[in-house]
Prior knowledge:
single chain; 232 residues; alpha/beta; Rossmann fold; six-stranded parallel sheet; two-stranded antiparallel ribbon; 10 helices; 14% strand
Amino acid sequence: xxxxxxxxxxxxxxxxxxxxxxxxxxxxxxxxxxxxxxxxxxxxxxxxxxxxxxxxxxxxxxxxxxxxxxxxxxxxxxxxxxxxxxxxxxxxxxxxxxxxxxxxxxxxxxxxxxxxxxxxxxxxxxxxxxxxxxxxxxxxxxxxxxxxxxxxxxxxxxxxxxxxxxxxxxxxxxxxxxxxxxxxxxxxxxxxxxxxxxxxxxxxxxxxxxxxxxxxxxxxxxxxxxxxxxxx
Length: 232
């Protein structure tokens, strides 16, 4: 089984630095595409990000599972399109929103805050969106936080207004959801309504960096379910 670990476009591939080696140690083939550089230029962003991610996914394979964290959830349909994956696990992730922009899915309070932060078409790095120290407090030690933050760059405001690719995921691949924090309760509930396998851990959004073994155990269970019960 191959697992393709998809990072949010708002952060870097280092969000998988804890899980990737743990999953490889369990015998999985693991790919971690890096498309963070695609956010440096101008639009369109989704097309470039998806192209880079698809290149890392490999040939058509029913045994390939996409594992998407946070904002990477919106990328899944376009990456999986054409049979490049047999399933997807969403970890504290946005659900796909084809033809709809990130801003259209965001809470009004967050959207308003980001509009005020915009300068010359750019937004501050993701960790600076929140109260000082809020993200750092999620980490076990300062070094782990510094490694995470070192990958973060300012972000193009246009990305948040760009509609996600017009590809519908419904019925094409088997999906599962792993909720890490309370902020994604609504997404987990929708996944449950759709009949997806859903697991919940009482951790936090960046627990993929701090609670690797607990999350790997859940990913393994969900991945086996998806392979055993592919989409019709």
